[in-house]
User: Which sequence fits this backbone?
């Protein structure tokens, strides 16, 4: 009798799974409410940042659409450059792990890293100027203040930014050109 109950329960579970799977595959999706990341194509943190910016600048609907298009293009390009930098950093680590690292190759990596960082800075500059073009004069002032405040916040607690004690006795290193 126990085997019959177990077989019935297994049959019910399998049947429930099959019915649930069929319902999932055949019923239309509820697309009335979409997450911000689905609507805007950015992660949630970026969405919140975009919302704060739009609210602070009091953007009109048409400005929000244009801002979002530019922001998305900027983030896509920035993501691409960061991937390249990450790959380059991995190559540097790999080269440094060799018994006899090739200084010339490491120098090329350093040069390429600088080139990519310059592109990121130029991309950011053009992005700011693009956004500023979409603003009214009052919004431009607010945007400039926001970027200035963001810049002041950079460098305070970034990676590698300790308490300034890295060059004490025994820690001074000459950096080759």
Assistant:
């Amino acid at each position: 009798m126990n085997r019959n109950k177990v077989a019935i329960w297994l049959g019910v579970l399998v049947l429930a799974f099959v019915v649930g799977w069929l319902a999932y595959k055949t019923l239309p999706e509820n697309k009335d409410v979409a997450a911000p990341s689905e609507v805007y194509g950015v992660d949630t943190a970026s969405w919140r940042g975009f919302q704060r910016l739009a609210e602070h600048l009091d953007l009109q609907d048409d400005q929000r659409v244009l801002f979002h298009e530019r922001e998305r293009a900027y983030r896509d390009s920035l993501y691409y450059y960061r991937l390249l930098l990450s790959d380059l950093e991995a190559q540097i680590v790999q080269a440094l792990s060799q018994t006899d690292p090739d200084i010339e190759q490491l120098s090329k990596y350093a040069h390429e890293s600088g080139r990519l960082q310059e592109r990121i800075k130029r991309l950011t500059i053009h992005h700011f100027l693009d956004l500023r073009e979409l603003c009214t004069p009052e919004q431009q002032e607010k945007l400039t203040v926001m970027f200035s405040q963001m810049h002041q916040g950079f460098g305070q607690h970034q990676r590698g930014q300790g308490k300034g004690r890295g060059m004490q006795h025994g820690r001074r290193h000459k950096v080759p050109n």
